[in-house]
Design goal:
This is Cellulase family glycosylhydrolase. The chain folds into two domains: about 80 residues, no CATH class; about 350 residues, Glycosidases (TIM Barrel, Alpha-Beta Barrel), CATH 3.20.20.80. About 35% of the residues lie in helices and about 15% in strands. The chain contains 14 helices and 14 strands. The strands form three sheets. Strands 8-7-4-3-2-11-10-9 form an eight-stranded parallel beta sheet. The protein has a four-stranded mixed beta sheet with strand order 1-14-12-13. α1 runs parallel beside α3, α3 packs across α4 and α10 packs parallel to α11. The protein is globular and about 60 Å long.
């Protein structure tokens, strides 16, 4: 097994011992409607949404991430349904009433193991959603329309292209270069619809970080959009089963995801958002979920440049709905009757604890160098040598940063990140 060792080729010095206060963190939840899951958009009920949002706000959270369904918003390539857009805007306004800010995801796309495509992309009309020029144009039209409709809402955080669009690559083959063109085109369209004060982002399932030759790359996640979003899931790479639900590898997974993302960013100050993390059974048994939530938040909060954490998800999927993977039925802070689960209480208490004291995040003066190619990216995922070396350092009390090999001798860059000691794998 590889062992980190000190590098003699590249070090940086830090002279200041004063750590300035860090910006307050944002804490929220991904909103999954309690009644009918996202199928509730077929017969949107504002009273039900108001009740769900009030429960979320009562936990002391400050924002939600919300999702409409692409087939309902754009059932024809040249038709965007005004009624569906108005429903989405209404939900954003209901969140404002509850005191919650909102990030809107545009193209859904993928949600909880189901993929939603408009019929004009399927069967004998099949179009590759990532490469077909007319399919791309339709998605840009939708994002512009959503941006125009939402712009000016004071509680709007921003507009995201869609949820984990890289989950769609199995049925839409695409190259890394084509992904870059797709993301650049859609991000520009989303920005065109929104004012300058809102975030424009994109998200990817963590195969983008760990998957060998996956066409959605770490560079795309860390360099495109206004900040980097990460979705560090304990089932990726069978992490929780491989190491155990109470293991350091699980409890520090979100922290690791933030530090890995920072390594790929060109801008050392680029913010990272832990946009999805959760406690799915049986990977995290219900008895362990409260401590998992507490440790995840506390460990991630020690990362400089963290924007916030958004839990997945608000409400369990009701078991009257069929054909979900077992873990999808147990991810909520509230059960399908609306009762708060012990994990909700733990999350709320930890959020209150973190907000009660000024936040200070000293720089990580020790960095571990990541050497990999697109074909060996899995070294940085659970089970990989780099992942295990980083976790070993963390359990020894070191707070390691991550630095890419090509930046390991860039003194100005290391200094900007506060790195004094560089360790390499042997």
């Amino acid at each position: 097994m590889s062992t980190p060792h000190a590098s003699t080729a590249s070090t940086a010095s830090t002279t200041s011992t004063t750590v300035p206060p860090s910006p307050p963190l944002r804490f929220g939840v991904n909103y999954t409607p309690r009644r009918g899951w996202f199928h509730s958009w077929h017969d949107f009920d504002p009273a039900h949404a108001r009740e769900d949002l009030a429960q979320i706000a009562a936990l002391g959270l400050d924002h939600v991430r919300v999702f409409h369904l692409w087939p309902l918003l754009q059932p024809n390539r040249t038709l965007i349904r005004t009624t569906a857009v108005d429903q989405l805007v209404h939900l954003v306004d209901l969140a404002a009433e509850a005191g919650l800010d909102v990030l809107v995801d545009g193209v859904q796309g993928h949600l909880s193991s189901f993929d939603f495509y408009p019929e004009w992309t399927r069967s004998w009309h099949h179009r590759n959603v990532f490469t077909d020029p007319e399919a791309i144009e339709a998605q840009t039209d939708l994002l512009r329309a959503l941006g125009r409709a939402l712009d000016g809402r004071p509680n709007l955080i921003g507009l995201q292209l869609g949820n984990e669009l890289n989950n769609l690559v199995e049925h839409n083959p695409v190259t890394a270069g084509e992904v870059d063109h797709y993301l650049d085109t859609l991000l520009a369209a989303a920005r065109e619809g929104l004012g300058g004060d809102h975030l424009v982002t994109h998200s990817a399932f963590d195969a983008a970080w760990y998957g060998d030759d996956h066409p959605f790359t770490p560079e795309a996640s860390a360099r495109k959009g206004d900040l980097t979003t990460v979705h560090p899931w304990v089932f990726s790479g069978d992490c929780a089963r491989r190491y155990g639900p109470r293991s350091p590898q699980v409890l520090h997974l979100a922290e690791y995801g933030v530090e890995l993302a920072k390594a790929y960013a060109r801008d050392p100050a680029r913010a990272v958002w832990v946009q999805e993390t959760g406690a799915p059974e049986p990977h995290i048994p219900a008895a362990d979920a409260p401590e998992f939530a507490r440790a995840t938040l506390l460990n991630a909060a020690g990362c400089a440049g963290l924007w916030g954490v958004t839990w997945w998800c608000s409400h369990d999927v009701d078991r009257s709905l069929a054909d979900y993977p077992e873990l999808e039925y147990t991810l909520g802070l509230f059960d399908s009757t609306g009762r708060a689960k012990p994990i909700a209480d733990a999350l709320a208490a930890t959020v209150a604890e973190l907000r009660a004291k000024p936040r200070s995040t000293p720089p990580r003066s020790t960095a571990l160098v990541l050497e990999c190619t697109p074909a060996t990216r899995s070294v940085s995922g659970p089970g990989g040598g780099f992942f295990e070396a980083w976790m070993r350092l963390r359990t020894e009390g070191i707070r390691p940063a991550v630095v890419l090999a090509e930046r390991a001798e860039d003194t100005a860059y290391l200094t900007a990140r506060g790195v004094a000691d560089v360790l390499r794998m042997s």
